[in-house]
Amino acid sequence: MILSRLTAAIRQQNWFAVALEFIIVIAGVVIGFQITAWNAARAETAREAAYLQQLDVELTTIVSTLERRGEEADAYFNWVTLFLEGAETGDPELAQEGSWGLNAITEVVRANIVPAVLTELISTGELRLVRDTELRNALASIPQMHNDSQSRMEQMAMRLSPVAFEISQRFEARLEGVADIENANYTTETLQFDFDAVAQDETFLRRLNYAALQNRFQASHLLSRRKELEIIRDQVRAEITERGFE
After folding, report:
1. Is the pTM of this model over 0.85?
2. Nearest-angstrom CA–CA distance, 64 and 148
3. C-alpha to C-alpha distance for 16 and 9, rounded to whole angstroms
4. Which of 33, 94, 102, 110 is 20 to 30 A away from residue 9, measured at CA?
């Protein structure tokens, strides 16, 4: 219809009508593009809101996991401290009480600190949807943070491996009562050892002290990562609140 009117106006040399028809066509195109752009912006904002809410959920879960891992590391340290105190004071009962720590003091605690939704954001290029530059950069730093942690834990595991082997040579595990994992009865007697031989072996005790120190390094690292992720999680929450995404 517009084309026929435009053709007729040109034939009649009605240049005002020609100009008006052009303006109408151009305005229609511009408005159409604008509506499309508005709809696209609204869709992107909705996706950003969904991503931020999921990041809040997953980061909260990871923070809780790191907190539990830190508590586990503390428990291992406390046990082995009892054992070392018993060995130092000549108290076999105290050493036996803390012997369970020997089963775990060389354990290296690992945790995946990269939210699954962040992996999706990065792999699909959708991280650009996060408008706040500071928050976007903080989120982008998490994978490298994870890689650094994994590298540190691998190095720690290599350092502790000889100590773990030596512990396995000196302590005998009792399997009675632990075969059925649903009704396992782990006690302070699960690990047996020659108290006098162990208490008089200064070299071995120094290695246990070394393992306990590595445990503290590990606990400190877990705490540091937890605090860093809590800061990022709080940034996510602040953005959700500020943008009205609740």
Report:
1. no
2. 20
3. 9
4. 33
